[in-house]
UniProtKB/TrEMBL annotation:
Keyword NAD applies: yes
Reactions this protein catalyses: UDP-alpha-D-glucose + 2 NAD(+) + H2O = UDP-alpha-D-glucuronate + 2 NADH + 3 H(+)
Name of the molecule in the record: UDP-glucose 6-dehydrogenase
NCBIfam families referenced in this protein's UniProt entry, alphabetically: NDP-sugDHase
Cross-referenced SMART domains: UDPG_MGDP_dh_C (SM00984)
The organism of origin for this protein: Mariniradius saccharolyticus AK6
Pfam families: UDPG_MGDP_dh, UDPG_MGDP_dh_C, UDPG_MGDP_dh_N
Length: 450
């Protein structure tokens, strides 16, 4: 079986590589010649655990190929996946120009029946727009070759995408063509040998499922951050509250960790897009608008705590930042809370010395020149820093040597943006600890005085 995957970004490359891993012939297509050349030489455009090994292994075997020629790639392919970017427009809606450009080219170059499946996250009605683009391109060339359109949204977690694809908890397929359904069923059979995980539905429902899933997860995060902020005001501990509500199976313990807000390529973009879709149809999604507002505000919480401790003017201060990516096990800094935090610190006159195990190269595209300093390791970042800010909970940050940090830092002050440190243990070692949704040192002093 042969398929084509258009787009070699996060979704396209992971999907193409994993399909080739089970014996399917895959051609990954991208218009960026430099990216394609690098992939042929085993150089990955993204960091994702396990991906590089799979790409190199299957490229060497010939099952995985890379090309810039879509017209050639789709010849003999039973499925063409559209996995290109859908960046948010100025009004928050998803920009479909890349998706529809691919559909148009497929219509101009196809020579036999093919299933065109969107893996890109797209708003409802995109399937019909893709269908119209393909049909319109065929009409211009004077052909009427049969084809089908499908929606096959991805549910991959950055940092665990390969495992998620190889062992999916569900596979959503929106389709309205029996032949296309059989092809998609055959394509995904290797991924469900231990049980049928495919959920078939109509195309609009599949498109909405992706947005609804991300919006629900984003809602949990913003809800918990809202509760955490209230916990600080009333003297409760958000960590205890999280455990209490997370034990309820109707709620669960995932995505209810207080922190400095969500980021990445999915939640921010998809929440904006579904809000925009609602407005397009005359409906205001008030809960999701609040989710977005809470998340925007949450990215400023840690800097507010820094200013509470050191004062509004941070001139002459240097802060060590641990973590730049929006989450561990990825180099993705899109909408990362670290960006807001760094910008706010710099605006207040501070110097920033940052360390991230993977994302520093990506950060250098955002902060060009000497706007911030990049450390060689976590401890180097803390040398002569006035305080430590934990932004991303990479594993190597979980149990540092506090005795070493106490000697490196000018002040034993930690701003824990992910609540991964034990406040009591740090206090025993002479550190002041500021968390999210917990009683900070200044607040405790105020309460003791009342």
């Amino acid at each position: 079986m042969k398929i084509t995957v258009v787009g070699t970004g996060y979704v396209g490359l992971v999907s193409g590589a994993c399909f080739s891993e089970v014996g399917i012939e895959v051609v990954c297509v991208d218009i960026d010649q430099k990216k394609i050349d690098k992939l042929k030489n085993g150089i990955m455009p993204i960091y994702e655990p396990g991906l590089e090994e799979i790409v190199k292994r299957n490229y060497a075997s010939g099952r995985l190929q890379f090309s810039t020629n879509l017209g050639e790639a789709i010849q003999g392919s039973e499925v063409a996946f559209i996995a290109v970017g859908t960046p948010p427009g100025e009004d928050g809606s998803a920009d479909l120009k890349y998706v529809l450009a691919v559909a148009d080219e497929i219509g101009r170059t196809m020579s036999d029946y093919i299933v065109v499946a969107t893996k890109s996250t797209v708003p409802v009605t995109t399937g019909e727009k893709v269908r119209a683009a393909i049909a319109g391109a065929q009409e211009k060339r004077g052909t009427n070759i049969p084809f089908a359109v499908a929606s096959n949204p991805e549910f991959l977690k950055e940092g665990a995408a390969v495992e998620d694809f190889m062992k999916p908890d569900r596979i959503v397929i929106g389709v309205d063509d029996e032949r296309a359904e059989e092809i998609m069923k055959r394509l995904y059979k290797p991924f469900q040998l231990n049980g049928d995980r495919i959920i078939y539905m109509d195309i609009p429902s599949a498109e909405m499922t992706k947005y609804a899933a991300n919006a629900m997860l984003a809602t949990k995060i913003s809800f918990m951050n809202d509760i955490a902020n209230l916990c600080e005001l009333v003297g409760a501990d958000a960590n205890m509250v999280r455990k209490g509500i997370g034990s309820d199976p109707r709620i669960g313990n995932k995505f209810i960790y207080p922190g400095v807000g969500y980021g990445g390529s999915c939640f921010p973009k998809d929440v904006k897009a579904i809000i925009k879709t609602g407005k397009k149809y005359g409906y205001e999604l008030r809960v999701l608008q609040a989710v977005e507002d809470v998340n925007d505000d949450q990215k400023y919480v840690l800097v507010k705590k820094v200013k509470q401790h050191f004062g509004e003017d941070l001139s002459g201060k240097t802060f060590a930042l641990w973590g730049l990516s929006f989450k561990p096990n990825t180099d993705d800094m899109r909408e990362a809370p670290a960006i807001v935090i760094i910008d706010e610190l710099i605006a207040a006159g501070a110097q920033v010395k940052a360390y991230d195990p993977i994302a520093m190269k990506e950060a250098q595209h955002i902060y060009v020149g000497d706007k911030i300093t990049y450390a060689k390791d976590a401890y180097d970042a803390c040398v002569d820093a006035d305080a430590l800010l934990l932004i991303t909970e990479w594993s190597e940050f979980r149990i540092p040597s506090w005795s070493a940090l106490g000697k490196l830092l000018k002040n034993k002050v930690v701003f824990d943006g992910r609540n991964i440190y034990d406040k009591s243990y740090l206090a025993e070692n002479g550190f002041e600890h500021y968390g999210i949704g917990t009683q900070d040192p200044v607040q405790q002093l105020i309460k003791n005085a009342l």
